[in-house]
Design the sequence.
DNA sequence: CCTCTATGGCGAA
DNA sequence: TCGCCCTAGAGGC
């Protein structure tokens, strides 16, 4: 259940566990068995990510990069080496004999070349988790500042904001008091910069912790005398999946609607429509 | 048991 | 805009 922070965290964990090692590669489920056999016994040189796309490089052949996209429900987990408890669902398993990583339910898991890797990354926009300067933000900023599309739509467009998903979208708009239907061209450059800076900070924290926590200390359930959230997606948030519940800041009920097929959440009181 | 939903993205209309 | 793909967990009966 991944936004970009999860993918970058996975790349880091894969590197910590396997980079530079000769590994066993298999596909207990069978769908990826051919490519897995071709990689089995080769060195895993490094894992890297751009947005929600994960790339695992192996030494050897022309096609030596495993390109993974987890989609909505995919998971990549680590556990001790040993017999696979769920052989029917594991698309890819990588093991060094001590620990193993196993991939479940990915949207994609394919073997590609370096050139195809470059092409896949080139289709993606600015990634808040890349080092400053290498993140493509300058050119993307110019585009979104001119756009007549809504800021909610722009933030979910992976060719503009690579790695941002439905939770970070909702939370960054709340934190900056922006009504989600505001057009990109109606936000000034400083506001767009604030959005970008916020995404970089929030997602870097998410990469470290493996959770999305956006709620400031003085608004936590404990500080506000509220019960902790029941709907636990793995972090404490202001608006995501809080439809009908009171806003942590102003107590106005949180609103939701479906926009372009995805649930959108915001506080109509903290995020009023702009007067222009 | 069943049904629903989900942090995503594609391709058919 | 809709249906569809993949899996797991929650909730209802």
Sequence:
């Amino acid at each position: 259940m991944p936004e970009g922070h999860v993918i970058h965290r996975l790349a880091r964990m894969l590197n910590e566990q396997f980079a530079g090692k000769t590994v066993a590669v298999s596909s207990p489920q069978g769908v990826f068995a051919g490519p897995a056999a071709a990689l089995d016994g080769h060195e895993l040189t490094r894992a890297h990510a751009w947005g929600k796309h994960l790339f695992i490089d192996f030494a050897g052949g022309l096609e030596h990069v495993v390109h993974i996209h987890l989609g909505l429900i995919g998971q990549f987990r680590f556990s001790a080496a040993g017999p696979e408890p769920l052989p029917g669902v594991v698309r890819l398993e990588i093991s060094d004999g001590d620990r193993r990583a196993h991939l479940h339910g990915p949207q994609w898991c394919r073997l590609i070349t370096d050139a195809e890797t470059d092409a896949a990354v080139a289709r993606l926009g600015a990634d808040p988790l890349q080092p400053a300067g290498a993140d493509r933000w300058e050119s993307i900023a110019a585009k979104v500042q001119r756009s007549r599309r809504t800021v909610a739509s722009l933030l979910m467009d992976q060719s503009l904001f690579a790695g941002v998903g439905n939770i970070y979208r909702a939370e960054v708009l709340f934190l900056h008091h922006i009504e989600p239907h505001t057009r990109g061209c109606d936000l000034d450059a400083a506001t767009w910069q604030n959005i970008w800076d916020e995404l970089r900070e929030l997602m870097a924290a998410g990469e470290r912790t493996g959770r999305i926590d956006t709620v400031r200390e003085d608004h936590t359930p404990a500080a506000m005398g509220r019960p902790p959230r029941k709907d636990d997606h793995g972090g404490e948030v202001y608006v995501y999946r809080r439809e009908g519940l009171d806003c942590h800041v102003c107590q106005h009920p949180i609103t939701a609607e479906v926009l372009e097929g995805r649930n959108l959440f915001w506080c109509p009181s903290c995020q009023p429509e702009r007067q222009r």
